[in-house]
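Hi F.,

I've been meaning to write this up properly since the lab meeting, where we talked about keeping a consistent format for the predictions we share between groups. The idea is simple: the sequence comes first, exactly as it goes in, then the structure tokens exactly as they come out, then a line or two of notes. No screenshots and no reformatting. I'm using this chain as the first example so we have something concrete to point to.
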Amino acid sequence: MKLNAAAKYLSVSVLALGLAVGCASQPKQEQQAAPQKQEQSAAVTQALAAAEAAIKEAKSLNWIWRDTGKIMKAAQAAAAAGDDAKAIKLANKAREQALDAINQYYLEKAKTALGELRGYGGLSAEQQSALQQGEAAVATADGKRAYDLLSALLAEVKAANIQYTVERGDSLWSISGKAEIYNNPYQWPLIYKANADKIKDADLIYPGQEFSIDRNPSAAEVDAAVEHAKTRGAWSLGEVEESDRAYLGGLRVR
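Output, unedited:
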């Protein structure tokens, strides 16, 4: 009888120990699974945050595709339902659409700036280089780069240039002599060179013509202009003098 009691006691002790060991091993398995779940949640959070940031920027520009918001809501719903893969896929799609809209916004702005810049003459070599880089960015649809280049160049050119509308009785000589222009009539070749695509003959301009005038020419440009004005020689209406052609330095006169 005592032996049976001892065996019964031993059996209960072993069972209790087994249960204790089982309980101790279960949390360890859960701890191993936890990092994977946290990593998935972090990926979802990151994808959603990136999409929301892009959408916010697109909205601030008032330039966003119609279904981007719907896609974002679907991504948020998938995340709430625990479908991480779907949530990430939809969030990435919403982000890509928003970024595409942002790029398109800047590309359109860049094209507008480019159109304005093409109306200005007399750009420096450095400005011409910036213009060419901007044109290349437009051609490759790199909206933000094109906008940054061309908008900065346009602001620079506008600050240095003014637009003058020719009035009856005007000549390049008289325009150049105006205080608000160069205050020196001998600098008229600067106006001629900057608007060579609009002026067929430096001695013949017409009311209503719009000229772009560089208010900050370099000293070398001023010296060359004054030298040409003083040594130009004989002139005649309706004809392009050879000295003018030489001064333009290879610019084609129509």
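Notes:
The first helix runs from residue 2 to 60.
The CA atoms of residues 17 and 39 lie 35 Å apart.

If this format works for you, I'll send the rest the same way.

G.
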